[in-house]
Amino acid sequence: MTAELNVVGQSVDRSDGVGHVTGRTVYTADHLFPATLHLKMVRSPLHHARIRGIDLSEAMRVPGFVRALTAKDVPHNRYTILGLIGVEPEEEFVLAEDRVRFKGEAIVAVVAETEAAALEAVAKVRLDLEELPAVFDVEEALKPDAPIVTHWGNNTFMYEGHPCRRVRLGDVEAAFAQADLIVEGVYNTSPIEHAPIETTGCIAVPEANGRYTVYTNTQALYFSLDNTSIILQVPGNRLHFVGGTVGGGFGGKVDVIVEPIATLAAMLTNRPVRFWYSRSEEMQVSSTRSAWRIYLKDGVTKDGRISARKVTSYADCGAYSRQTPYALTKHAANAAGPYAIPNVSIDAYCVYTNRQPSSAMRGFGVAMASFALEVQMDKIAERVGVDPWTIRFINAYRNGDMKPHRKLAEDATLIETMQAAARLVGHELPEEFRTMTSAPRGASHGEDR
Amino acid sequence: MASTIVTFELGDRVVEVMVAPMTTLQSVLRNQLGSLATKDGCRQGGCGSCTVLVDGEPMMSCLLPVEDVAGRRVATLETITPAQGLHPIQQSFIDHDGFQCGYCTPGMVMVSKALLDHDPSPTEDDVTLALAGNICRCTGYQPIIRAVGAAAQAIRANDGEVAR
Asked: A105: closest CA among A127, A120, A88?
């Protein structure tokens, strides 16, 4: 039976293509409203400090100054994006209260008639800050004498009462004792900024019916609406959120950073308020992918089978964890890699430091695990004396294999993907790998371990 | 300092704007003239999304005081878009998937137009060099480079004629 296919196998124009090439696509920043006020943020110049005082007197004399907002103006001054799914505790402040925990943390929102006036007023707000010791390294942050970043007394996110997310399968220590080789490695990644060409921003517009229309380039419209509703303590039906074409996100626009404060400013002034990140804010203040440090210890047989893998991971979530605790859970589920390893132990820590907060970015905790694991696999191959293909084929998981987090592997395609990759790069695989499949062990090919 | 009146050509019309000193061409285009195809990505001359043509040369409008274009010809993505249909460069960006989010596309099309107006047969290196000031975070650039090369071919095949 051959059906006529209209889309599969055809080149289909994107529905937004003409808009993009003619400049007619409307991005959030392209919504312009008369009498719009501009919001700019006074930010901490220090990595960690106690706030002793805020002096607005000079700022208020700037022509065009309309008003300033501080923590006491925010009805529920806590921002905890994962609070929507019951994650506790509430940790971040919409505007800082007694302490700032990273360089760039928002302290005072200034609203003015023009951007220039807002910037001038921001420059004239006088902060009285007492600098505190800061910590910038995950393992330093876990030492007993480290400065404490959080308000609950230690520097780790707590997973059901534990300082780390733990995964256990079999007995790694017993397997290490019997292994022919032990291969260890430590892998570090840097924080990465998504750097969308369109920076983060929104415009909140008071409507005649008492509602607020919020035009935003969020990637997560309902996260934005719900968090704004919680922070402002107004029912969701007074908020009308309008999304649209996002000028690049990559996970960086999943946090709800601009909407609550812009909407509050619109409520307090009864004017449209635009809060748009400058490029510097996008780079230095918006969430990054967290920095990671991953320790791997593998027990390996002399023919290259990995019998045990121990993973200790630290995600540097920065001063506030945002979506990193969730990224870390995904990391822990994937930290042994797509390999069938009978003994696994994973401890993954989400650690607070005085760095820029981290959050979602494509790959979400898994990309860094893959980086560490695949470099480690090459290292194992070298130690065993086989090529990088061999080490992966002989350890690849198959359908029906038990993964460390107690899920059976389903729809495994690692073997078939590697076979396709080998064909594409013109690498000739030996017969045993060419004919290998992801079928359950003991099935058609009868190959078992 | 007092505001001044600046007159320049925008496409085929003459525009007159009143501006405070050091107002950028980008700000005038977006906030006074409604030319929203000219994007705002960094205001530092770093991303190229605000690129327009001034007397045929690509310039980043975020760094250009509007006084500097007094009496000169400015082209934006709107002014080079034909009344009917698309410029061959625009069509080629669609045909070769030269965008994902589209935010850098106006700047990409403008620098490509400046390149092809000067040199109808650029090498791939010429294209890469012409695009070097424009950042795209989605595509990895290869589809854009292919789109510009194919647009050059399409324009040459039509004896250099571009519908207007």
From this structure: A127
| Residue range A388-417, pLDDT digits in tens | 999 999 999 999 999 999 999 999 999 999
How many CB contacts within 8 angstroms connect chain A with chain B? 88
Could you please state the CATH topology (level 3) that the domain comprising A165-192+288-411 is classified under: Aldehyde Oxidoreductase; domain 4 (3.30.365)
Shared domain for B67 and B115, answered yes or no, is no
Q: Report which of A344, A333, A351 is spatially closest to residue A293, judged by C-alpha positions.
A: A351
Cα B73 from Cα B53, distance rounded (Å): 8
pLDDT digits (tens, 9 = 90+) for A184-225: 999 999 999 999 999 999 999 999 999 999 999 999 999 999
* Minimal Cβ distance to B102: which of A13, A20, A195: A20
What is the fold of A28-132+195-284?
Answer: Aldehyde Oxidoreductase; domain 3 (3.90.1170)
Where do the H-state alpha helices sit in B50-164?
Answer: 77-80, 88-95, 105-118, 124-130, 142-157
Across the interface, do B36 and A26 touch by the CB < 8 Å criterion? yes
The interface pTM score, or ipTM, of the predicted complex is 0.96
pTM (two decimals) = 0.94
* B136: chain A residues, CB-CB within 8 Å: 197
Backbone angles phi, psi at B109, to 5 degrees: -65, -40
* Residues B93 and B144 reside in one and the same domain: yes
Structure letter (DSSP) for residue A118: H
Question: How many domains are contained in chain B?
Answer: 2
Residue A106 CA: distances (Å) to CA of A45, A257, A315, A356, B61:
10, 10, 23, 12, 30
Q: State which residues form the domain around B132.
A: 88-157
